[in-house]
Here is the input.
Amino acid sequence: MTRKITNWYVITGGPGAGKTTIVNLLGAKGYKTTIEHARHYLDTQLIKGRTVEDVRKNQKEFQSGILDMQIEQENSLSPNDVVFLDRAIPDALAYYRFLNLPEDKKLKEALSKVLYRKIFILDCLPLQQDYARKEDESAQKRIHSLLTDIYEALPVPVIHVPVMPPDKRVDFILKNL
Here is the structure.
């Protein structure tokens, strides 16, 4: 199967790396961007009356729901458009591995369909907990390492973005397109 080559740039990194801040700043500059689906999925479940603990209790369901949203979103984008993605399908693989979940057919199929223009992996910032982010520093580092390994195994250029003020990170990314 041939992969669909896109003009999409992935912004990724471990929990609390500043991905959404960077994607929002890129959106403010007029670039097309996407949302981060873990928080969005959690929010949709909270609206349905579930608690964060209840949603996170079944990690297979949680990760599968996030993956469904990511697949739907990426399928709706034109491969010709320049888009900055707040995480992408390969992020799901990192979380499946982190949680020791089996890599199911849906994930494998999604991973085989798309190639990104370039991957920007943000170095981690000090972790700040909130209602949706429950990882500790050890988990943050492990997830970041898994993401790095997975993206560096793809036939796509990977750029590591050091810790610096958000506007400087955006400038760094735009200079490295």
